[in-house]
Amino acid sequence: MDFDIEAGDETNGLYWDEVARALAGFNSQRKVLLSAAPSCVFPDAHLDTAIKTGLFDYVWVFMGLPATPTGAPNGGYISPDVLVSQVLPVIKASPKYGGISLWSRFYDLQGYSESIKSSV
């Protein structure tokens, strides 16, 4: 079960820990694997209490990037060559590295994902 909670009233995040506990104890014969993809803001407003239960089998961090400069009018674009040569070697060393996510498929039509695919 993947917890990818990105929206909603932050006070509702107080209950994700209870959901995690319920799922962890759901079936004694077959473990329910729990994973989470928290937001970059830490602690995550929605998942912090759930992650702190220690019940999650996986917590991955994905680096989200715009696929073109047009997709990031306020900045944040990293060219594929810089990503592959300078950024990926650093972040892939983390045991929590989950991968790269691009915004969005519309902007990716110029081939960003294809140019980084073998390095991710």
From TrEMBL:
Top-level taxon: Eukaryota
GH18 domain residues: 1-120
Any single GO BP term: chitin catabolic process
Keywords annotated in UniProt: Carbohydrate metabolism, Chitin degradation, Disulfide bond, Polysaccharide degradation, Signal
An MF annotation (GO) of this entry: endochitinase activity
Cellular component per GO, a single term: extracellular region
Catalytic activity: Random endo-hydrolysis of N-acetyl-beta-D-glucosaminide (1->4)-beta-linkages in chitin and chitodextrins
InterPro entries with a match to the protein in the record: GH, Glyco_hydro18_cat, Glycosyl_Hydrlase18_Chitinase
PANTHER family per UniProt: ACIDIC ENDOCHITINASE, ENDOCHITINASE
Name of the protein in question: GH18 domain-containing protein
Organism: Lithospermum erythrorhizon
